[in-house]
């Protein structure tokens, strides 16, 4: 039994759903999940579909899919083999809470991915990588070595065929070259409910403004700081009694859960991105 | 332009989605919403679909739907004309918060329904009905008049072609006859997160147990007390400082929102019921 | 039995709590609530205390309080008689959901205040005021009449000895004169989780940014737009399926609850304001 | 500088707060935190207080505290030296998520306690204990060895002067002897919002009942199963699309956060227990 996931988007038109589902039916596929969304403002149709087949060649399927459907409706599409595990690289600095959380989920089988390596600009968390038996590369970043460090990162990413990157509280600005190569494939966790408190030290800003709710936001990295497509957000209540340390501690729990949720959506091919916004098919 | 909503459930089989969507496409319908769910334990397929047509006869459509689809797949189905407003009767006793909330939503156009009348076993809330210009029937209920009261209620419901009933903190047990006639069509609000604290005085029980979270649950009435299919639940945090009055006050806000949400799901034909559980297609 | 509420703030020093509580004990008062907070950054001590007395003159109490405590510790303080109901004026424009919510809570005894009148720049909601038997004043506001309208508002507020003002979705900028006279006494509801989406049309901005959470914020009005001390915030989850109308509808429920909570905190003298932030003693 | 935490409860009487705070002031203590609560139904007064002293003997303090205050008001009390770290034993079986979470918090300095050892009836999680350099004792439990296992557990607990025990998804019923010795000192995590779904397999029961919200509850163990004083609860939304595996996965995040919160409250001496309920002074 072969299972695939299909993501489609195109201009909204009549008959797309019928055409796609009939195409699957003609290939004796059984649709086990279908969801669609129409963005009425922009007139764009989005669809996500999971289907099972008894005998199946993914190459033949793709060829016919292009001929019969994609060309006709001018679709942008992706077809994933459900057994393929995406390769995820983790970038960290010195904070360990997100890393521990990701690795313990990975260990317990919650994340359907491979983790070929962890990269850091510091050596502080190397022992955690060792505990979980994952290769750790220390690539220091300073003003003078920035260019060099980026090239080392890119070499590692390319030589391991990395599919997407998770910045698990990586305290460096990612280079334009990386962003270009991994468009909508670099997941960041920002410790505020964006668009509030963009940039550095959001918990300090939250304390200063006297908010009653703090948050965390996971988003894809784009060139504009903290302005990429939002994948997941969550919040927690705070009061006047919370000090900056309390906010940071409470925030850690938010960051862990929000980042893990975003990673899972990405791994399970639930996310589509259009016009700097995400469509997430649960 | 005609818009319809279709709800289907049947044994899970290959090709249902393709068959249904092709059927719609053949009638030149444009599917604007589709969602499906498969209950893997029970092997049941559920589907909800909204479709628009330029020219359309609902009777012809139904006839062909039965011939081409329903018989073949042994479907249970409902087809609703989107412009039809369901007729909702409201039952109340003495608490006014849910009634005020429903009527002010109704007034502001949030509820796509008609409210032919309000029934109560007390006269306390008659003035609210008058303020909102909705007929109010006072049907007292006592041990000796119970039978008689039920008949009066049924007469009212039938003579107004009521589609569904909302018990907006109606403090009486509803009769078996009513439940039989309005299966999965009587929406109740219970002031606890069911199945905790079934029956009377749930806030008192919550206080006694020392829970840190209280809740409210909206469900369809079945013969077993507080055991019908759950439509919506919500919760709020409480602490040791909350007295019984505080719980009741906090709970009122939960009850209002939870009941209103359940009513909207029902009105918008988003709810399907199977095996004492709801499938809610958002 | 007389009950009073005391709010105090001053520079943090040793012995304040012992001095205050002994002072109460010497007057045979029974403390039924005490809470305090120290802002360590600014070194300010805050305290809220409720106390009951058998025989009591509030004037004598205040005089001795000043002599014995306030002068010694250089306190800012307020002493409220618990039976005094603050007088609340409501300003509205055309949206009715917050008004309905406030008035139905008022009707059911949830708000310990008086509502001498409702003011609006439109006549649309006059009928609601009439239903609840509350005087309604229509004061139109246009560019040319702005000055005049403000004077009429101030006359009304002063002639009724209004203690605080609630802007229940009042769609006008409040004048500087009003803000000066009612410092930390004008409660607004803004339909975003501030500081995100300051200004007009926050739901439209939220939709455009693709946030996964929307919010509402109640705050005291200061001269800087949407930048006053935050009293209460709450949020709700949204997804890509929510249209602008869905956000507005979902937001209404947030606005109602958040504004009502802020009003209750204010009425129950639970709020202290310092340095553009609130301390709220639950 | 010496810092202590005092917990008091006694029959509610006039003058307690003044007497306690004056006592502290007389010893030149600076109160940095005070909170109190009166249970009006049972007429019991509760208080928690943190105070700092320049020079201080805890033994002298306790002696005078008893003479001057505790005897007079018939108080039950506890006085903790803030620098004392309570000793926490962790009991686990095979689930690793709570253990990883606790140990990574411990590692990052979030938990002010010592962890002398981890006990398990299985060897599966020994490697995690080793990664974190914490002694691990494998004490198998079977019907025939139950008595023996309990004695081994008690020996370990007593020889290490353990203050409290955390059952981090320990899948065994704890013996009466242990409960007697560690009253209100054994913290359990139950994977439902108690009192709903007491006992085994609560996620399965939740799925069967069709709830829209699942929860987790941390409570002190008493002899009655899942009926001890609740310390913390939290919930998460679910829908008809969630399978039993989804509930279990979602629940893991709840369990981790709820248990960690309860542990922190306990460690920070924020919890008092009376009549099977907790008072938690935040």
Automatic annotation (TrEMBL), chains A, B, C, D:
Q: What is its EC number?
A: 3.5.1.10
Q: Which reaction does it catalyse?
A: (6R)-10-formyltetrahydrofolate + H2O = (6S)-5,6,7,8-tetrahydrofolate + formate + H(+)
> Does Cell membrane appear among the keywords?
no
Q: Which domain of life is it from?
A: Bacteria
UniProt GO molecular function: formyltetrahydrofolate deformylase activity
Q: In which pathway does it act?
A: Purine metabolism; IMP biosynthesis via de novo pathway; formate from 10-formyl-5,6,7,8-tetrahydrofolate: step 1/1
Report the top EC class in one word. Answer: hydrolase
In the UniProt entry, which residues are flagged as the active site? Answer: 226
Alphabetical list of Pfam families matching this protein: ACT (PF01842), Formyl_trans_N (PF00551)
What protein is this chain from? Formyltetrahydrofolate deformylase
Question: What organism does the record attribute this protein to?
Answer: Psychroserpens ponticola
Lineage runs: Bacteria, Pseudomonadati, Bacteroidota, Flavobacteriia, Flavobacteriales
Gene name of this polypeptide: purU
């Amino acid at each position: 039994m072969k299972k695939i996931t299909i993501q489609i988007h195109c201009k909204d038109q009549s008959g797309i759903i019928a055409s796609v589902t009939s195409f699957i039916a003609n290939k004796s596929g059984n649709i086990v999940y279908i969801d669609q969304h129409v963005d009425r403002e922009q007139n764009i149709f989005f669809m996500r579909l999971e289907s099972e087949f008894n005998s199946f060649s993914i190459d033949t399927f793709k060829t016919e899919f292009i001929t019969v459907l994609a060309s006709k409706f001018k679709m942008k599409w992706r077809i994933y083999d459900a057994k393929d595990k995406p390769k995820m690289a983790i970038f960290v600095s010195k904070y360990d809470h997100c890393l521990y959380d990701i690795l313990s989920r990975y260990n317990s089988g919650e994340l359907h991915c491979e983790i070929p390596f962890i990269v850091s600009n510091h050596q502080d968390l190397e022992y955690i990588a060792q505990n979980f038996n994952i290769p750790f590369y220390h690539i220091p970043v300073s003003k003078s070595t920035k260019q060099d460090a980026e090239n080392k990162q890119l070499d590692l990413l390319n030589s391991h065929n990395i599919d997407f990157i998770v910045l698990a509280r990586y305290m460096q600005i990612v280079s334009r070259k990386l962003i270009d190569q991994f468009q909508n494939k670099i997941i960041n966790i920002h410790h505020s409910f964006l668009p509030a408190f963009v940039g550095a030290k959001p918990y300090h800003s939250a304390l200063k403004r006297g908010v009653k709710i703090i948050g965390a936001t996971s988003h894809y990295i784009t060139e504009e700081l903290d302005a990429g497509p939002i994948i997941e957000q969550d919040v927690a209540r705070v009061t006047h009694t919370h000090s900056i340390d309390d906010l940071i501690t409470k925030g850690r729990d938010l960051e862990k859960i929000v980042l893990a949720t975003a990673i899972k959506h990405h791994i399970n091919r639930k996310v589509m991105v259009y016009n700097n916004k995400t469509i997430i098919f649960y």
